[in-house]
């Protein structure tokens, strides 16, 4: 029960990785405040230490309110895991609308700004904290047709490193995890329109991983539990590839 004193906010807690991360943190004894668009997406997490909060992470006022409530209930916020995100269906750049570009940037980058801003406010007062952003190995090992998604993940990594240097004097660590293709509901959404989703998952994604299989959400959760823990006390500004070698 290494994390028994920790209070951790997990965004995207109703998603494939968010669920596995919440489960792992709860199993390690942490108190978890899960945030996602709909409360019902978090209903599987039936645990006395888990609180589900329905909130649109792009709504600045609602996010501030959700963090204030979490802090009021728990007295502190030790960790923030940014696990929300949105996929792009592989498409040539000429077919990508400005509207989709903005949406991807908002969900995958602006969300990080809004949650990290709130977390930093509370963590600075405590002089400690750990913020982790799930970006993507595609930021450094791109695939064709995912230009907007990949740009958003590159921004997520840069933002994380910028915060790491800014917040280090306050005892707050900020790290990035780059997953390879991971077996969640999102993976099929990267398929080109009209392409068979299962074939894409196997032939484009699983076969591109040197270790021969898709990443499991639990693989990501293991890395998060380490980065939240005090074992990672001197790890900040790091970019951890949990990708079975896809980035090589
Ligand atoms: N699955 C993959 O292959 C893969 C690979 C690399 C990186 N990633 C990244 O990992 C993270 C988690 O992805 P996942 O596979 O678990 O996806 P997922 O689609 O299963 O989960 C994403 C969650 O984010 C939530 N969300 C989206 N917009 C929101 C908003 N405005 N407010 C609140 N919640 C919102 C969704 O409701 C969903 O529950 C994402 O950042 C994704 O880009 C995924």
UniProtKB/TrEMBL annotation:
Transmembrane segments: none
CDD domains the record matches: SDR_c (cd05233)
Cell wall biogenesis/degradation is among the record's keywords: no
Coiled coil: none
GO BP, one annotated term: bile acid metabolic process
Entry GO MF terms: oxidoreductase activity
Keywords: Oxidoreductase
InterPro entries: NAD(P)-bd_dom_sf, SDR_fam
Gene3D superfamilies named among the record's database cross-references: NAD(P)-binding Rossmann-like Domain
Record flagged with keyword Transcription: no
UniProt similarity note: Belongs to the short-chain dehydrogenases/reductases (SDR) family.
UniProt name for this protein: 3-oxoacyl-[acyl-carrier protein] reductase
Organism, scientific name: Planococcus citreus
Taxonomy of the source species: Bacteria, Bacillati, Bacillota, Bacilli, Bacillales
């Amino acid at each position: 029960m290494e994390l028994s004193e920790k209070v951790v906010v997990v965004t995207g807690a109703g998603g494939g990785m968010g669920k596995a991360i919440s489960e792992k943190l709860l199993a390690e004894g942490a108190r978890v405040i899960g945030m996602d668009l709909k409360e019902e997406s978090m209903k599987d997490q039936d645990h006395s230490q888990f609180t589900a909060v329905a909130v649109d992470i792009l709504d600045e006022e609602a996010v501030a309110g959700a963090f204030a409530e979490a802090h009021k209930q728990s007295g502190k916020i030790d960790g923030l895991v940014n696990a929300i995100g949105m996929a792009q269906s592989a498409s040539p750049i000429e077919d990508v609308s400005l509207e989709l570009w903005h949406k991807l940037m908002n969900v995958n980058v602006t969300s990080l700004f809004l949650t990290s801003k709130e977390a930093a406010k509370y963590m600075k007062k405590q002089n400690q904290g750990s913020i982790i952003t799930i970006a993507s190995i595609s930021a450094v090992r791109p695939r064709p047709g995912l230009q907007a998604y990949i740009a958003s993940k590159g921004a997520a990594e840069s933002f994380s490193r910028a915060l790491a240097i800014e917040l280090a004097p306050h005892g707050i660590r900020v790290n990035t995890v780059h997953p390879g293709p991971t077996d969640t509901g999102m993976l099929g959404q990267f398929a080109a329109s009209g392409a068979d989703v299962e074939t894409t998952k196997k032939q484009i994604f699983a076969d591109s991983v040197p270790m021969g299989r898709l990443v499991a959400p639990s693989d990501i959760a293991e890395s998060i539990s380490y980065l939240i823990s005090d074992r990672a006390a001197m790890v900040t500004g790091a970019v951890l590839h949990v990708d079975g070698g896809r980035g090589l």
